[in-house]
Amino acid sequence: MTRTVTLGAAQLGPVQRDHSRKDVVERLLDLLRQGAEHGCDLVVFPELALTTFFPRWYITDEAELDQWYETAMPGPDTQVLFDEAARLGVGFSLGYAELQVDPATGDKHRYNCQVLVERDGSTVGTYRKVHLPGHSENEPWRAFQHLEKRYFEPGPDGFGVWRAFDGIVGMAICNDRRWPETYRVMGLQGAELILIGYNTPVHNPPAPEHDRLGDFHNHLVMQSGAYQNGTWVVGVAKAGDEEGIPMIGGSAIIAPTGEIVARCVTDGDELAVAVADLDLCASYKTSVFDFAKHRQPWAYTRITEQTGAVLPPE
Ligand code: CDT
Question: Is the CB of 174 under 6 A from ligand 1?
Answer without folding.
Answer: yes
